[in-house]
Design brief:
Keywords: ATP-binding, Cytoplasm, Helicase, Hydrolase, Nucleotide-binding
InterPro entries: DEAD/DEAH_box_helicase_dom, DEAD/DEAH_RhlB, DEAD_box_RNA_helicase, Helicase_ATP-bd, Helicase_C-like, P-loop_NTPase, RNA_helicase_DEAD_Q_motif
Radius of gyration: 23 Å
Structural class: alpha/beta
Pfam family, one: DEAD
CATH superfamily of the largest domain: P-loop containing nucleotide triphosphate hydrolases
Family: Belongs to the DEAD box helicase family.
Number of domains: 2
CATH topology of the largest domain: Rossmann fold
Number of strands: 14
Helix content: 25-40%
Mean pLDDT: 83
CATH class of the largest domain: Alpha Beta
Organism: Methylocystis hirsuta
Order of helices and strands: HHEHEHEHEHEHHEHEEHEHEHEEHEHEH
Length: about 450
Amino acid sequence: MKATTEVTTFSDLGLNEILLRALEREGYNTPTPVQAQAIPALLQGRDLLGVAQTGTGKTAAFALPILHRLLADKRRPAPNTARALILAPTRELAAQIADSFRSYGHFFRPSVGVIVGGVSHRPQNEMLARGLDVLVATPGRLLDHLGSGRLRLAATEVLVLDEADHMLDLGFIVPIRQIVAKLPKQRQTLLFSATMPREISSLADDMLRDPTKVSVTPAATTAERVAQHVYLVSGGAKRDLLVELLNDREISRAIVFTRTKRGADRVAQHLESAGVGADAIHGNKSQSQRLRALDGFRKGRTRVLVATDIAARGIDVDGVTHVVNFELPEVAEAYVHRIGRTARAGATGQAISLCDNGERPLLRAIEKLTRQTLEFTDRRAEGARQDDGDSSRPASKRPNSPAPHRNGAQHPRREGQRPAAKRPGASFNGQKRPANGGARHKQANRPQG
């Protein structure tokens, strides 16, 4: 086996020839850094702790070694068991992980199943009764099947926790510990997380045995290939500005993020009424509605997908040119995950944030977390008579806001200290690419082997 620094093709990693054929079929030739670092250790049976953002290729980093293991021992799984268990925070992410396993296993067709909420138990019961090579599940519904006795984990050989920090955000840590308690002690365990809060570190200490540690980016950096820009805007003018931006046909596929489910529906309806094809995806939608919206977006029938943060890490669609933060997230880390929906698979992308007066503290938190100052365009004068509160509400229901600062073309954190980056109303597409901290933090971003 070649050293990690010499890995240039998947064949250098020692993967089964059947998997190499599938990768060639998918058009994958060169491993990403997380794949080059993780796969050799996983083929040796090591536990792994991976700090990696979405879009770094981590699904293949754990899927390929698991499939290699199944190929080396082709015994059929017993009824109501699963040889490999992958836990994911959302239904969309679970479905996409399962699709990846099917793609990489194209030439030997392992049995792959998905267990998520929002759908009937009966098809899932029938699937479990046959036994599975790979089971991808969300924690809540999985516990239901464990409690009913329709699934046993005593024969599970590999456990993967994907997006562990997001599962923490959704309150899944206790269910995860309940699931882990039912697994055999002799197993291979992999934990992937984009950030490493104290609770996740504690969980990793309890679950992993002498793990290999892989970190391809610091936990709170944004993709270097994403150009980021902020529009300072009065809340009541956000929806009109959003339509103006999306009328640019260079934005061929965009995801717009809102804080609330109701806000997502309202923004999608406003875009539709303005002639911009859009659909909403959030937790109040049924599983079939969410899959239909995601499928339409992936296949290009829908140009804009409006989503809440619960869907931020479950959307893995190539060719997303732009991410728009219609409302800034209340948790700064969510900004990193949102803009990670673009610039995937080596492409570049653009992230646009609409920031009203009430969101300035959120903007400061994002800049502090990501260690960068975002360039901006001031559009507040255009909506000065409208309130800067909940921008998803109809403007007629909002009181008037105070007039903007007299020197309105200045950064909200440095009023009176720094000139505007661009004249008011300047086009985003005409902005030069902002400094995203890539050069300043190149040393910190170097993969750790």
